[in-house]
């Protein structure tokens, strides 16, 4: 197996004490880190979801990463773009910050700089750009729009929220995969430590079901890490637009032989993982049209705050007694679900 990929299996969040040693060894072997380096640790905190929902990077994985970094004497820049005050508390990250007396950096507070990729100007996080090392700590999940989310998609959060809203207009076409890959290409992380211990199957990225798989994926190549997990849960990777675009644009450090080696040696497949149906072309549009008609707001949870109305890039929500959706305008971007502070938006099962 390619020496930059390390898979640790049979893990449970209740007992990760030994992980710190594994992560430390992996960092020293694969990362040229010096004392006083600024090290961005980019989490996936998509919204105010409790750790057991499997929507966000689990705090115990973050704890192991922090403990591996502390003896290295670097500056730990624990960061993500969060929109709600309560995200840190609900996801369990606030307690961890307190335990280690760390500072949390909300990317939106540190400004953005313009970066041009393939003719599109992105407003990219100045904080991430200022770091010497970037460690991405994503969660592997299903994603109804992009099929899955992991290492590549985790860097999407590094552009301004305003622009993320605007870019959702590319969702319908396969262009969105290109956008995600462009953003990933701006600052390819030095290391990936992907939380795949409990993943999200079903209606990811925020409304699916947790599924224990027990894996931690360490890699110097995010495309390879995503490829590995997507294979593991049984996706036909040749149909995954984000992965195929990343390969086409040569955003991987891996060689075709590395992939073949994984394909041949794959005996651990989680065949019954509840994957999102992967459609391409006109079938994809039909599927999305069907899906967007299943949105509903739980009246008992909705506090009528209007956050979903503000979040919607397509002006598809009107706040009446409860929010109402214009299904023809909706592009199924999931912004409203991710930003609802009470998780009141869901699908009719
Ligand atoms: S659905 Fe959620 S975001 Fe929208 S108004 Fe209700 S509580 Fe607020
Ligand atoms: S209604 Fe929700 S899912 Fe649909 S476009 Fe608006 S924010 Fe996105």
From TrEMBL:
Cofactor(s) listed in the protein's UniProt record: [4Fe-4S] cluster
Does tRNA-binding show up as a keyword for this record?
A: no
According to the UniProt entry, its GO molecular function terms are: 4 iron, 4 sulfur cluster binding; metal ion binding
Give the top-rank taxon of the lineage listed in the UniProt record for this protein.
Answer: Bacteria
Which PANTHER family does the entry link to? Answer: PHOTOSYSTEM I IRON-SULFUR CENTER (PTHR24960:SF79), PHOTOSYSTEM I IRON-SULFUR CENTER-RELATED (PTHR24960)
- What name does the UniProt record give this protein? Ferredoxin
The cross-references to Pfam families, in alphabetical order and at most eight, read: DUF362 (PF04015), Fer4 (PF00037)
Which keywords are on file for this protein? 4Fe-4S, Iron, Iron-sulfur, Metal-binding
Q: Where is the 4Fe-4S ferredoxin-type domain?
A: 293-322, 323-349
| Source species of the chain | Ruminiclostridium papyrosolvens DSM 2782
Q: Please give the InterPro entries that the UniProt record associates with this protein.
A: 4Fe4S_Fe-S-bd (IPR017896), 4Fe4S_Fe_S_CS (IPR017900), DUF362 (IPR007160), PSI_iron-sulfur_center (IPR050157)
Question: According to its UniProt entry, what is the function of this protein?
Answer: Ferredoxins are iron-sulfur proteins that transfer electrons in a wide variety of metabolic reactions.
């Amino acid at each position: 197996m390619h020496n930059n990929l390390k898979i640790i299996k049979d893990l449970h969040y209740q007992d990760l004490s030994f992980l710190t040693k594994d992560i430390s060894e992996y960092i020293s072997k694969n990362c040229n880190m010096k004392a006083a380096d600024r090290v961005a640790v980019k989490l996936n905190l998509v919204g105010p979801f409790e750790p057991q929902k499997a929507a966000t990077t689990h705090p115990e994985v973050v704890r192991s990463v922090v403990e591996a970094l502390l003896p290295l004497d670097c500056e730990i820049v624990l960061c993500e773009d969060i929109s709600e005050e309560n995200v840190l508390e609900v996801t369990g990250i606030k307690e961890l910050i307190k335990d280690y007396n760390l500072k949390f950096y909300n990317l939106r507070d540190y400004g953005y700089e313009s970066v041009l990729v393939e003719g599109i100007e992105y407003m990219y996080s100045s904080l991430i750009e200022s770091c010497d090392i970037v460690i991405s700590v994503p969660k592997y999940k299903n994603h109804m729009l992009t099929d899955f989310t992991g290492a590549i998609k985790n860097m999407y959060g590094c552009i301004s929220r305003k622009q993320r809203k605007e870019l959702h207009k590319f969702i319908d076409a396969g262009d969105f995969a290109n956008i995600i890959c462009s953003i990933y290409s701006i600052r390819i992380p030095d290391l990936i430590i992907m939380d795949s211990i409990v993943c999200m199957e079903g209606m990811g990225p925020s409304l699916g079901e947790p599924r224990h798989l027990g894996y931690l994926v360490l890699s110097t190549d995010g495309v390879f890490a995503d490829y590995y997990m997507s294979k593991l849960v049984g996706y036909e990777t040749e149909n995954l637009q984000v992965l195929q675009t990343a390969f086409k644009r040569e955003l991987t450090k891996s060689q075709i032989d590395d992939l073949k080696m994984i394909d041949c040696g794959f005996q651990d497949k989680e065949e019954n993982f509840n994957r999102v149906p992967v459609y391409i072309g006109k079938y994809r549009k039909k599927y999305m049209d069907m899906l967007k008609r299943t949105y509903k707001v739980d009246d008992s949870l909705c506090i009528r705050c209007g956050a979903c109305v503000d979040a919607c890039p397509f002006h598809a929500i009107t706040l009446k007694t409860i929010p109402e959706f214009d299904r023809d305008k909706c592009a199924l971007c999931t912004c409203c679900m991710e930003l609802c502070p009470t998780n009141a938006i869901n699908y009719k099962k």
